[in-house]
Amino acid sequence: MVAMNGRAILHYDDGPDCPCNREKERAYRQGFVEEARRVVREWGDPDDDAFDPWAEIATAERTRRRVRQRLGCRPGHEVPAARARGRHHALAFVTQAWDEVSDLDAFDRHVMPAWLLAVERWTERPIRMQTISPPPRPQDIEGADAARAEPAEAEPAPPPAHRLKLTRADQIEMRPPAWLLRGMLERDTFALVFGDPGTGKSFLAIDWACRVATGTPWRGHGVTPGPVVYVAGEGQQGFGRRIRAWSEHHGVSLIGAPLFVAPAVAIPEMPQLGELAVAIDEAVAPPALIVLDTLARCFGGGDENSTQDMSRFVSACDALRRRYGCTILVVHHTGHADKNRARGAIALKAALDAEYRLADGEAGLKLTATKMKDAETPPPLGLELVSVDLPGLVDDYGNPVASAAIEITDADTGAIESQVKSVRPRGKWQEVGLSIARRLIRRGGDGQVTVDAWRDACEREGMVRQNQHRVLEALSKRGDIIVTDGEMSLPTP
Questions:
Q1: How far apart are CA 214 and CA 225, in angstroms?
Q2: Are 481 and 475 in contact (CB under 8 A)?
Q3: Which end of the chain has fewer surrounding CB within 10 Å, N or C?
């Protein structure tokens, strides 16, 4: 921590060419207190076989060095870098206070809660850029020496109380949306795209991931490049072909691009979530986007329809988002009974910042925003899956291999909508009514049957009169049958 040119340069900053600002100071404090909370929670009663604080501080130091080397003061990365430095310093403040692990155990047990309380208070102090306000050190806590000398007689400090702070409405800072992909995905948000199997959900997620990793424009708008982690829980064997198809179709090389692939991880399970975080820290600068494809493969052993289990998944996604300040994009399937919504507990949609449905019809794909929390809802977008030959790749029989890529079209989304099959499955009596209509029409020989004859047959099957009207109306609206002047027929294939 030094003074330079009359200005306070904080010891955790990158130097005079990358001065501190309020946003970076806020991020540094956030990273510091998050790591301090984890240390106090996990190191209070460590497992002697697995407890290795020196390995943790070494990992944190390597991460911080990589952040500085790879990002430095590049625009858009100062805040994640400051947050990483905060996490590293919190560990350094703890592990550099003693020389032996035995001392660490005693010191942590009796002094660390009081140190965390001091850190919480330091985090809440007003930010004054011309005044240096370093975090408190454990050895500076009153009574630390006594606790180390006589740990058996010391009393643990009470847990820190949560402090609620009110902000006057006119003092809330307003910021415009920070787009990762303009009009679609904001930075530091939780988003989801869902659809039926085979609609191209993964191809769309790959398209977005490749654009962010390479800085390739999206619909004519510039994209700020950043590292991407793609958790490919489904279709790993074909993932390489899919990204190659994207590269060939758009003429953009992926060589050296910061696009990293991971196998399926049950992120609600803390050990697996921790493994993913460690893998990201070791291989990647703070990512701009993490894709979880699909929710089912990253959900673990819970029940998607359970609010409690879904809330655990959402909390794990939020933990990743907060750790890296990145966007989380989840690929998911439609519901079994209602194709208009994603499968599982409604707690998922409640937590989302953005949600998109991808539907397939004869006229093409249609991407529709079904939730946009804090930005203007974008209009529906027409897409198509185009076949892409992969040069130099043949199968065992010598045949060329192809994959596919997403292409934005100028198709009329209204026409696509008219071609998209009805998203709600037929109910029990609708299936019965349609089956009867088809049977009677085939028997008639002229392609028609009277509505009265259909009603009589439905009544014999147990369908009451009041249901018959609703079933007839629903089948007609769906286009399953055509009713004209009391006659019923089937649509032309």
A1: 6
A2: yes
A3: C
Residue 63 neighbours by CB under 8 Å, 6+ apart: 84, 88, 281, 282
Tokens 């795209």 map to which residue? Answer: 193
Cβ-Cβ contacts under 8 Å for 393 (sequence gap 6 or more):
241, 244, 400, 401
- Residue 327: which residues within 8 A CB-CB, separation 6 or more? 180, 185, 186, 187, 188, 189, 190, 191, 288, 289, 290, 321
Sign of torsion, CA 451 454 459 460?
Answer: positive
Three-state SS for the chain is CEEECCEEECCCCCCCCCCCCHHHHHHHHHHHHHHHHHHHHHCCCCCCCCCCHHHHHHHHHHHHHHHHHHCCCCCCCHHHHHHHHHHHHHHHHHHCCCCCHHHHHHHHHHHHHHHHHHHHHHHCCCCCCCCCCCCCCHHHCCCHHHHHHCCCCCCCCCCCCCCCCCCCHHHCCCCCCCEEECCCEECCCEEEEEECCCCCHHHHHHHHHHHHHHCCCECCECCCCCCEEEEECCCHHHHHHHHHHHHHHHCCCCCCCCEEEECCCCCCCHHHHHHHHHHHHHHCCCCCEEEEECCHHHCCCCCCCCHHHHHHHHHHHHHHHHHHCCEEEEEEEECCCCCCCECCCCHHHHHCCEEEEEEEECCEEEEEEEEECCCCCCCCEEEEEEEEEEEEEECCCCCEEEEEEEEECCCCHHHHHHHECCCCCCCHHHHHHHHHHHHHHHHHCCCCEEHHHHHHHHHHCCCCHHHHHHHHHHHHHHCCCEEECCEEECCCC
pLDDT in tens, the chain (493 residues): 333 233 333 344 444 455 667 788 888 888 888 888 887 776 655 554 555 665 666 666 676 666 666 555 556 667 777 887 888 788 777 766 544 433 344 344 456 677 777 888 888 888 876 666 788 877 666 544 444 444 444 444 445 545 678 888 888 877 788 889 988 999 999 999 999 888 899 999 999 999 999 999 988 888 889 999 999 986 566 889 999 999 999 999 999 999 999 999 999 988 888 889 889 988 878 899 999 998 999 998 889 999 999 999 999 999 899 889 999 999 999 876 677 789 889 999 999 999 999 998 767 889 999 999 888 888 898 998 888 888 888 888 878 888 899 988 854 444 444 444 444 566 778 888 888 888 888 877 777 888 888 888 888 888 887 788 888 888 887 788 888 878 888 876 5
**Cis, peptide link before residue 413, omega less than 30° from 0:** no
